[in-house]
Each structure stands twice: as C-alpha cells, then as structure tokens.
Amino acid sequence: MAAFRYQAMQGSGAGVQGILEAEDRRAALRQLSERGLFPSLLEPCGPEGGRIVAPRKSAPVASGAATPASPATPAASGGIRFGSGVRRREVTAFSRELSALLEAGIPIPQALEGIAAEESNPAFREVIDSISHEVKTGVSLSVAMGKFPKLFSSLYVSMVQVGEEAGALPKVMNDLADLLEHDDEVRSEVTSAIAYPLFVLGFGIVTVMILLTVVLPKLFAMLEEMLDTLPLPTLILLRVSGLFSHYWWLIGLGVAAAVAGLRAYRKTPNGARAWDQFVLRIPAIGTMIRSSALSRFARTLGILVKSGVSLLPALKIVESTVGNRVIASQIAQVAEETRGGDSLAGPLRKLGIFPRNAVQMIAAGEESGQLDEMLSKVAQIEERHLRAKTKTVISLLAPILILIVGGVVGFMVIAILLPIFRMSRGIH
To answer: What is the CA radius of gyration of the chain?
Structure first.
C-alpha cells in the first residue's frame, strides 16, 4: 500500500485535502470517486500514521505546488506540437483504457488523470493532461479532443459527442476502441504481407547499383583494353554503368526532385483527386482499394447509426474516412440524395459505387430496421474479400519481383560473359 496526498473539490464546491492509502494511483482515484470528490492534485507521499486521514477544509496551497494540468502547462497553452510523436496504437490503447475506466464508474477527469499518470509517451501524456484540464473547466470531452485533430479524427470526435449527448459514453468509447483495434489489425496484416516483396525489391536494387557503380566499371576497363569491339549487350551495359558511375549524384537528385514534385502535386486538390483516380484504375490494386473503402464505409456508418447519429450527418462523417477522394465524392452525392428523403440503398444502387449484393443487404437492413447490423455484416464480407485479394496479389508479387531482379542480373551476367567467350575463342 502507498500513501497519496490529495486536494479535491466536493460536489458542493467546497475544497478538501487529505492523505489516503491505496495500491496505486488508479486505486486512489477510484476511492476519491466513490466519495464524490474531484481531485485537482494527487501525489505520492510518506504515510501519516499508517491510516487514511479524514478530509478537512482546504488550506491555501503552498507556493511550490501546482496541479498536473494547470493552465500554465505547455499542453494547456498549446505550446507543444503533437501528432508525429504519438502513434496510432497509443491512441487505440488510450480509447480502450478510457472505456474501461468509464464503465467502472470513474468520472472523466479522474479517468484521464489516471491514464496520463501511466502514459510513457511524454507528448501523449501532455495531450491527455490538457484534455483533462479542459474537462475540469467545464468543456465537454468531445470539444477538448477536437483541439487535437491529428490524434482524434472527426469520426472520433463526433462519436464521443454522440455518446455524451446520449449518456452512453462508455459504450461509445468501447465501440471506438473496437474500430481502432480492427483498423490496426488490418494495417498490421498488410504491412506484414508486403514486407517480403519490398525486401526482395530493395535487395535487388542495391545489388544492381553496386554492380553498376563499383564492380563493372573496373571490369569493362580491362575488357576494352583486350578487345577492339565489344558485343552489343556488353556495350549497352557499359554505357549504363558509365552513366551511373559518373552521374549517380545527378540521377539521385533527379529522382528526389521527381518524388518531391509528385508529393507536392498530390497535396493539391486536383493532384490528389487525379492520383486517387489513377490508383483505382490499377489492375488488382484498384479492386483492393475499392473493397477497403467499402468495408470502412460500412463499418464506420454502422457504428455511427448504432450510436444514434442520423443518416445524413453520419454520411458526412464517413465521407472523410474512406481514404479515397473519388469514392468520397460519390458518397457526398449519396448524402445529397438522402437529403431529399431517399433511402440509403437507392442512391448507392443508382450511382453504382459498391457491388450489387452489398447494396441489396443494405436495403434489407433498412426495411427490417436493422441497418447497423446489416452494415456490420457487409463490412465483414468485404474485409474477407480484401484479405483474400491481398493474399493473392502478394503471393504473385514476390515471384514477379524475383523474376524481374533475376532478369536484370541475368542480362548483366550475359553481357559480362560474351566478351570473355570471344577472348577464349581468339586464344584457341
């Protein structure tokens, strides 16, 4: 058991302070919550007589004391940059932990303080402290989270707001944690699947570049001295090797400039839409992207409808989560159609955004009043299709890359051996 010194507010607004014993900080917060106290300071201290001291009227706080989320902290004043230092999995774990604490009946400020105390990432800890401070001052949790859009998306904030308005925040946070965990699982599967093909491609590129810039120039210099004329494959390889060995820095700058230009173009509205349109037309890849967008559309919309969000606002939220601007614009058209009182399945069927069987399932869900459950089933079906397509593409990608790398290396070997064979015939 450890001792904790606390300063808190009663429901009546009166300040109290004291010392209590608990197994850890979270247990101490739970004890304070059970007493109806809202702590502004909770810190470890030495035991006072080995017992919990009864609360007494608050004395003025010492000059050195400060609450963990006081207005002077950088997180509260906005002086810290967030986003790049916080990973998606940390936000997912935060959502799951907050859901569990809220379901246990712990008030939001205390739950946030407990999570912040256990958070190992300093950047994320300051974010949570800032949100906790905002909530203590009377700001809703959704508004406080909305101040960090890089961490909490519009979907996330909207669902929290719905949970607050409906009085079902623990349940909504649990749904959010399920959604984030599922997204993390899919991302992990895709990353693991493409790791080997990327390794093969990278290893092949490095091997070819070393041969072209280091090994072949020395070998070709020797062959040119021994032979008057070189075979055509050898001459081609000689020119390519000379180009890379003498102008590798210029080629590197050109590639970097091309990549930077493409990235800058993709950040423009026209460029982003053109790129999304292009990837949808790539064989196999386009169907995978469309299946991914459909599964995300169905799962996210199903959770929003289940949480009590009306269809039109839910479609506006989903529009920004599908990950492809072309499909997002089509969903925006669906939202406009539903504004006039049409059902969801009607515009989906008319625009032909998604497969016919998925639209039929959505129509059945609307007719039976179980739209959220049917959307969840559509998401599960499309996710199975996506996994199957991904496995097929990845299983073909690795051997294709091996053949390409092997073909390039084979051409280099032939180009090297041809002059050697010619010299051997001259000796005989």
So the answer is: 31
Best CA proximity match to 140, nearest among 128, 149, 131: 131
| Per-residue pLDDT at 63 exceeds 70 | no
pTM over 0.85: no
Q: Side by side, which strands form the sheet with 15-22?
A: 38-45, 2-9, 15-22, 56-57
Name every residue whose Cβ is closer than 8 Å to that of residue 137 and which is 6 or more positions away in sequence: none
Total count of domains within the chain: 1
> pLDDT grade, residue 46 (50/70/90)?
low
Q: Is residue 313 part of a domain?
A: no
Cα–Cα distance, 52 to 218 (Å, whole number): 82
Cβ–Cβ under 8 Å, residues 108 and 101: no
Q: What is the DSSP string of 269-306?
A: HHHHHHHHHHHHHSTTHHHHHHHHHHHHHHHHHHHHHH
Containing structural domain, residue 28: 2-59
Let me know the angle formed at the C-alpha of 90 by 88 and 96, rounded to the nearest 5 degrees.
105
Confidence of residue 81 (pLDDT cuts 50, 70, 90): very low
Confidence of residue 77 (pLDDT cuts 50, 70, 90): very low
* Residue with the larger pLDDT of the pair 381 and 48: 381
Burial class (CB in 10 A: 0-12, 13-18, 19+), 364: middle
